[in-house]
Amino acid sequence: MMKNIIKWLNNAVVLGILLALGLIWDLILVGHAYDLNKGEWASWVQAVGSILAIMVAFWIAYHQLQHSRRLEKERAISEDRRRVEIIQAMLISAWVLAYSLKTAITSNDTEFLANFNWKSLHDLADSFRSIRMIEVPDVTIVITVTPMPTALEMVASPFRHHGMADRYESGGSIMRDLKSAVEDLLDATDNAKSSCAIVLQRLENQ
To answer: 38 is in which domain, residue-wise?
Structure first.
């Protein structure tokens, strides 16, 4: 019961009505105490009406301000969510590329590796670089996403700097470097995706 009363009192509308009723009652008591005549009562009622009009105007302004603040908060949350979801989509693309390379390396699928479009890694790295980190809504995303361009370029490097013939006649060192770079990319992608998921959940709960 007490919790419901406190909840009602925290409601601006209910509190405003209670204050208005209390003021009207006090003014009526004052009017009776001074034994006002009909003309004085008319002036007294007009005064009460003026005060109530001021209170209503104040409440309307307050309500509009609260509504504007709520809309602004919702807009900001929506924009933050959109930014995180874009980053999340880029991370999924990076993960798919890395996992496909890992699968090809593990199965020794040289045909896939020979036809792999390594420039897609470079393009994705550029996309990560283009992110305005100052607009990212959480520092953990900034920290985990910042290494992504380097991780992507490290995977692209063996493709960029070695011809296909040299790549497979080098005794496996290039393949080992590629495998290590792919594992690092997968780790970086998983860390960044986890950060995005946590932030999205937090935004959802706001």
So the answer is: 2-67
